[in-house]
Amino acid sequence: MKLFPFLRPLLEFTVAVCAIVFGLRFITGFFTQASRVYRPTFLRQFYLLFWPLLCMSVGLPFLVSFLYLGTLSAYELVLLVALASVILGFSVPALILHAQYYARNLHTTLVFDPKQNKLEVYEGRQLVPFARRDLVRVEYVTCRSKRAFWSNYNFLRLHLASGQILTLTSLLTNLEPVAEFLRNSSLERRQRWACFL
């Protein structure tokens, strides 16, 4: 551990910040109503990225061994390549999906209240006007596997009569209630290995 003396304080700081954030979120959860306005938030992103980042943080220190490539035996090299492929194979698809969803919905706001029959989408501060009758087709794309790190990444595409397509990603919120709300609007459910846009 002498090789990385800065890792311990960095990990302690990260754990302390996470504990404070979740503690405050837990306490304030008692005093706030359920939100009906959804944007990409830190906690939602942390929820989606927790397992991929944990996998990367556990595995990457071992991958530093690639720096000593000339001194490794064939057996060690095979193990190192296998470990690298597992770490990157589990983490990289989720990180790519997260980057795509973040780029798509960074400035998107979803207002969703099924009790009030309300579904509004804002791009920036501009409301995108549409009603249910304007929905030609709704695609709900989910992940086939429920155990992969990227299984929580899914999206809804709203095809409007005007030709405009609105894409709502799981970076905003859990989309299953929204899909259920739109079930009578020509909803098409699809499954993919990974829900790339």
UniProtKB/TrEMBL annotation:
Top-level taxon in the UniProt lineage: Bacteria
Keywords: Membrane, Transmembrane, Transmembrane helix
Cited Pfam families: PH_40
InterPro entries: PH_40
Spans through the membrane: 6-27, 48-71, 77-97
Domain annotation PH: ranges: 37-180
Protein name: PH domain-containing protein
Species this protein is from: Hymenobacter aquaticus
